[in-house]
Design the sequence.
């Protein structure tokens, strides 16, 4: 068993300043194993949801996950942690949108212990009602609506 990385970079006791989370959720006992550790697959599903939100806004419609480019579990997540998911678009292609997602856990909220638990990069493709790829609209067209 390895000891979680709790270096100053992973335990900053601060959420990212000036940013709003895309998603906040608290895992329940059903999301964890018998030891109280939250399943990695549950965290991956929440990251996918959080990443899809800015992608959907930028695509101005439906998107589908086409790639998980990277996914790193930096620290364990426990039942009762309050998770905050921050997502930023890092690339827009013809039909695709790549999003970085960072996840922070607020533990022992009375002590304000905040730990970065996950980092991921996912790529989504904009799709039409036929579920086929479609072009991402130019940003200018979205700003004039």
Sequence:
């Amino acid at each position: 068993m390895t000891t979680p990385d709790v270096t100053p970079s992973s335990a900053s006791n601060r959420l990212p300043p000036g940013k709003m989370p895309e998603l906040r959720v608290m895992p329940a006992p059903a999301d964890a194993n018998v030891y109280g550790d939250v399943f990695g697959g549950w965290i991956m599903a929440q990251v996918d949801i959080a990443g899809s939100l800015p992608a959907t806004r930028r695509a101005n419609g439906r998107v589908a996950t086409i790639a998980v480019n990277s996914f790193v579990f930096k620290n364990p997540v426990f039942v009762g942690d309050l998770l905050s998911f921050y997502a930023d678009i890092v690339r827009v292609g013809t039909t695709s949108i790549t999003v970085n997602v960072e996840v922070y856990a607020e533990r022992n909220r009375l002590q304000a212990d905040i730990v970065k638990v996950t980092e991921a990069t996912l790529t989504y493709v904009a799709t039409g009602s036929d579920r086929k790829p479609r072009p991402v609209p130019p940003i200018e067209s979205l700003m004039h609506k």
Observations:
- The radius of gyration is 17 Å.
